[in-house]
Every structure is written in C-alpha cells, then in structure tokens.
Amino acid sequence: MTVMEQRSAYRPAPPPAWQPRTDPAPLLPDAEPYRVLGTKKAEKADPELLRRLYTQLVLGRRYNVQATALTKQGRLAVYPSSTGQEACEVAAAFCLEERDWLFPSYRDTLAVVARGVDPVEALTLLRGDWHSGYDPYEHRVAPLSTPLATQLPHAVGLAHAARLKGDDVVALAMVGDGGTSEGDFHEALNFAAVWQAPVVFLVQNNGFAISVPLAKQTAAPSLAHKAVGYGIPGRLVDGNDAAAVHEVLSDAVRHARAGGGPTLVEAVTYRIDAHTNADDATRYRDDAEVEVWRAHDPIQLLERELTKRGLLDEDGVAAVREEAEAMAARLRERMNQDAPLDPMDMFAHVYAEPTPQLREQQEQLRAELEAEAEEEEAR
Amino acid sequence: MTTVALKPATMAQALTRALRDAMAADPAVHVLGEDVGTLGGVFRITDGLAKEFGDDRCMDTPLAEAGILGAAVGMAMYGLRPVVEMQFDAFAYPAFEQLASHVAKMRNRTRGKMPLPITIRIPYGGGIGGVEHHSDSSEAYYMATPGLHVVTPATVADAYGLLRAAIASDDPVVFLEPKRLYWSKDSWNPDDPQPVEPMGRAVVRRTGTSATLITYGPSVPVCLEAAEAARAEGWDLEVVDLRSLVPFDDETVCASVRRTGRAVVVHEAGSFGGPGGEIAARVTERCFHYLEAPVLRVAGFDIPYPPPMLERYHLPGVDRILDAVARLQWEAES
C-alpha cells in the first residue's frame, strides 16, 4: 500500500457538532434605553408609586445639596454627590423587599437612606468618624464599598447562601460605569450566572469615572451588552426615568426571586456634579454637555408626568419641598454636633478578642492620652 | 480498658479529617474552591467531601480567586462558615484585594456587627519540585494585614487541631499548609484526635539549653534535624514551633530565649522584610539583657523562588542553620 492509499483509508470520526450553549438573542438589551415617563406606558403606572418616587427624589436631591454644603463647612471629609442620578438611587431601594439585601458603592448614600438607614449613620464613612456607621443587618444594607466592584461578589455569595438556606432573598448590587472595567465585575457576573444566583446588578452609567469618559472605559456596544457574554439578560434603561428604572429593576428582582437567575441592568444617566466636592469637572467636560442633561432631569421628568395626570399640583410640590427642607434642617442640625470619638475603639474590633500585641498598643495609647490630659489640667 | 493503637497518618489525611468533622459538626461549614469537588483538590485534601456532603457543601467554583473569596465574604455575611481553598500560594494573589480590603477589615469597619468567619487554606512553600508560581512563602503579606489570623501547622496533630480551631474561629484565618509536609507521617488516631494548644500559642518541640531555633511550618522538621545534628558539635538546641504567626506568642518565644540566651529564626520566606525581621526585633526588644549574641536569621534568599532544579540551594537546610548557630558568639564563653 502506498502512502497515498494509506491516507485515503484514514477516516477520522467527525468532532461532535458545535452548539451554542445559550441562545444569545433573548439576552440582548433593547436598542434604546427603555422609557416610561412621557410615553403611553406612563398612563398605566401606579399613581401611588409615582408619588412616593417623586417625594423620595426631591428628598434625595436636597440630601445631596445639603451633604455637599456640609463638606464646605468641614462637617464632612468628602461627599460624592449623586445629583442627577436620584432616580436610580431611589428605585434601587424601592424595588426590594424587606428581606432582600442592598450592596451599595460609595456614591449610593441616597439608596442607603431610601432603604431606611439613618441619614446621619449613612454619612459616617464620609464624615470620617468611623468606616461604616450603620448595622448592616438592621436594614440588610452592606457597608458602602469604596474599592470599586469588590462588593459585587459579596452580593453573589450572599444571594447564593440565601438560596442554599432555602430563603427567597434577592441581592441588588450597585456599581458605576468605571467599575465595570474591574476584574471583580467580571468575576461576580460569571459566578452569579454559573450559580444562577438571585442577584440584580445595577450599573449606573453616569458618563464618567472621575474624569475618564465611557469611550475610554469600554468598546462594548453598551454596558448592558456585557451580560450576554455571561449568559444572562442585559437590560438598558433610561436612568433618569424613575418609573422605568423601577419597573426594570422590579422585573429583574421578580425574575431572580422566581429562580430565573441574575440580570444586568444598565441605567443611562449623568453625574451632574463633579466626582466629589474635591474634584473640578471643568477640567474634563463642557458646561454645554451638563446643560443637555439638566434638561433631562429625573425630578422634572416625574413632576411633568404627575402634573399632566393631575396627581400633583402646586400645593403638592410645595408640600414635598417643605418636607425636603425639614429633612435638610434636621440633617444639618445633627451633623453640626460633633461625632463622639473614642480612640480606644481603634483596637476594639480588629479581632473578636484583641491580640496581646494590640492590647499592648492600646495601653500605650491610653497612657499617652492620660499624660496629655494631665498636661492640659496642669496648664 | 481498651487502648486504641496509634496508626501512622499523614498531614493530608488529618486535614481531610478536620474538614470532614467540621462539616459534620456544623451545617454552616461550606468548602469552596477550584477542583475541590469531584477531584478532591489537586492535593486531595477535600477528597470525598463532595460525595459525602453534596456539591453545595463542597463546591467547585469558576476559576477566579477574587470571585471565590468575594463570594465567601457574602456567604459569611449570610451566616455560613466558608472554608476557601486557594490551589497554590501564588494563585492566591488575585484574591489579595478581597482579603486585604474586606476579609481583614469587615469586622472593624462595622464595629463588630459583621464578623467574617472565613478560613482560607493555602498550600505554601517549596521543596516539592514545583515549577514557577507553585512554591512561594507569602506569609509576610498576610502578617502585615491587620484583621487576619495567620496559622501554619507543622505536625499531623496540629494540622487537625489548628484547622478545626480556624474553622471554629469567628475571625478570618489564613491557614497556611506546608505542602511539602502533606505526606509527612506521625502516629495519630483520627477517631480520637487529642486536643492541641489553641491558636495563638507556640510550642516547644524540643527542649535544649544552648540556643533557641524559632521556626514554623515546613522549617520545623528541618530545625529538629539540625538540633539532632548539633549534638555532635556540643550544642543542645531548643526548637520553638510558632504555629501561629498572628497573633504572635511573645511569651513562649521569649521564655525560651531567656533560658538559652541565643536565638536563630528559621523560615523559607525571604529574609528582607520577612517574618524573621519582626521576630528578631520582638525578641531583642524583650530579651536584650538575656542575649549573648545578636538574633540571627536563616531564611530563603531575597530572590524570586528559584526553579526546581535550583531550589535546594535556596531552602534553609541543616548546614546553614548550624553555620548560623556557630556564629552566636560562643567565644565569650570559653
């Protein structure tokens, strides 16, 4: 037999036919951000829900303004404002049941407060008297996460643990557009998808990661499209349309609770203020761009809808504003009181029991403080 | 009275037994990591656990260490007691942000409201002929991260006892398993594991009068061997097994050094910025007037871990330890 004959006699078995593991079509986000306000769909929206959203949006805006003012008075070390993003913040809190969990990033103080956390305790991190001021178990709100996207795998783990225990708990995790570039974003979405964990990922695409615009952050068609790579649905929503964000998030929460697995929601919005009070946004963007977004303001959008449907009049607007002013006054008053500080706290919670080494250091500081107090007394 | 005969058991078997007993004792204990399920782990430490307790209790995860540890944080938040396996020392680095920024800090951040009882098992150290990234001694990173316990067994009994204690701890524990001791044998009865000293305590493995060798993990057997060899030179060496790097047992270590007046710290990790510097400083600060000589260090060189064909030149061995002991200023006594 010649070599050629041998070759023609060789008939390898074909490899198994390749099949896509998931049909990508149903996972794809809409071509345009989903909107409710100003469309026919708004007529079907629950008036009570719209009123509640509106009140909370106005309160939230006032909270942002007050907190920013507190930085100028030295009462807050720093404040990353969510002005312009209130619809996302409020909807994230409102779409959850009491037993659910919220995993906020550092810009999400409003969502934390809307979930029921004390407005002063929510500011502890930013005031700087402790790293986190509220008991996470009281309202099922994880501490504000400063390292980007690192809270997302926590949400996945918690949701998975809840499911293992047989509890129908959903975790909602919040992250920004910049955070979607982090490895933890990828790992969290992948884990959630593989485990079919009841998690909703809310990306607030506010256009900037401090100064870097989205174009330098990703080449994806949209951030919502990233979901498809993990085999989970991606949803694109107008982040300034409170009714739309609430509807999309509520659907995703329901889907997760029913065992349908995670969803990635991209809410397209805009950070009206600078990154924080310490940032200068004029260095990287034009006022004209900001003005375009000011015209698409989440409060005005909702106010217009409510007024059109006769659910809100001038008195109603005034009443909500009055409520917001009262909230701001209370916040101001409480924040103007000095936070109680005990330097010994620094050693108290590092471990369940301080190590012998920490006890020694604690004693050293105690002695220093006592000497300091004696010196002051002697003066 | 019946006496149960002690059979030889390996450290790997004792670790497996500790995981199994912990899982049987507490349904909150969940094992997760890469290949820990069906395969039983690349070192077979989780062998049989998925079969006995189910895939949910001993869970194969996607291949992503930050995701594994991050998910463990969330599981611990919800009341579970996760035991994470990092496949090799150097493969734990992707999880470092979760470890340093959340695992180590969550209790403190929340003023004790949200403790994270997570055990992170990491096979570490060299001496098994591993290619690059399979032989690191990364304990100094973990020691420098407040909020973590750092524990490493050197005996079969400690492997069981310390792992049970780590899993039972309400604090996060980095549990460093000396991989070259996985197959070391000792008489040990798995059905009647005797209690060991608690986490945080060092143990004198060999008493002596001439000098103290302060060591831990994979270097403990090396130091015991060195102590035997030193008898020929007329030195009677004491060997202290630290067992726990954080918290550090100053009491046991200093009591030994005060007795002997001389000390050498021995570990595989690099010398510069390594655990030995901290240990030598602590001993000097506390035992200065008892010391006949400066505290010396025998450590790995300050190089990236060498390729396997060169590792025997790198690892602290008996000769290098005895050379250090010889430099402990014995002239003054003669």
Automatic annotation (TrEMBL), chain B:
The lineage of its organism: Bacteria, Bacillati, Actinomycetota, Actinomycetes, Kitasatosporales. The keyword Oxidoreductase applies. It holds the Pfam family Transket_pyr. This is 3-methyl-2-oxobutanoate dehydrogenase (2-methylpropanoyl-transferring). It comes from the Bacteria. Keywords: Oxidoreductase. The keyword Oxidoreductase applies. SUPFAM superfamilies: Thiamin diphosphate-binding fold (THDP-binding), TK C-terminal domain-like.
